[in-house]
Write a structure and sequence with these properties.
- The structure is a single chain.
- By secondary structure, the protein is of the alpha+beta class.
- It has one domain.
- The protein is about 60% helix and about 5% strand.
- The relative contact order is 0.17.
Length: about 325
Amino acid sequence: MKIMDIDKKPSYYQVSASEDVQIGGQAVIEGVMMRSPQYVSIALRKSNGEIVVKKDAFVPLIKRYKFLNLPIIRGAITLVETLYIGIKALTYSADIAAQEDLEGEESSKEVKKEDALRSKKEKLFTTLWLSLSIALGVFLALFLFFYLPLVLTDLLRVKAGYLFNIVDGMIRISIFLVYLWLITMWKSMRRIFEYHGAEHKSIFALERGEGLTVENVKKYSTHHPRCGTSFLLIVMLVSIAIFMFVGRPHTIQERLIRLLYVPLIGGISYELIKLSGKKATNRLVRALVAPGLWLQRMTTKEPDDKQLEVAIVALKSSLEK
């Protein structure tokens, strides 16, 4: 599908700032995925300048089954769904990129094999890093952010329960920061971070009730309080508070039992990140979300107009009835 008219402003793109807009997104390879209450849309920029759009209907479990739409529970359910949708979006964008590589090789015999192979490897590594970022809150976090810090804190021979959990939490946050720093060192990730910024800007414009045009969208910040980066930092802080009541684990079994608290921690973190979006003007809330916004200086970059177009197309497609 070629690029739609991004300057057109139908009524259903105009959202009141007071309305509870439930829009989420994610940067993918050369594109953006947007998720509305009814649809998941992926817009990708091909090398020839064309924007292709893939749109699927999707109704969250918490909308289909009201008993799941309870505080804390809905957070855990939403996180699993977000992981599933994110991996599907990444797989699709990687498939499109690989398809373009094949088309490029077939249309130009002068392309050197080593150059084509290098390009494929770069896209493969980019996809790998993105997949790890999405899985961070579930699979990777189970080891890096819950078990490994316990082992390292044990090595420090911290005895007191409350002090143990504070040190454990600080190590967990340090590992998280090192992880973010490592992925920012990968040059191929810069364009992903630019699309990440485009995603945030377009959602900001929608939440402010503005028409979704490049000129309207580009004036907004790339740092959004409901970003996944901010969410992961909240997870780290909530885990410290929860484990303060659990005490110090003494055996491997007690360490593993802590993994059972992950859904609870994720659910509480989800409620907090949701609240931060609703109460963005509250001074206390702004102070609490500030560290997450600072971290987004690492994971978002300023996009160009073409990248904003892609984000707008994805967002409009997800809203179109």
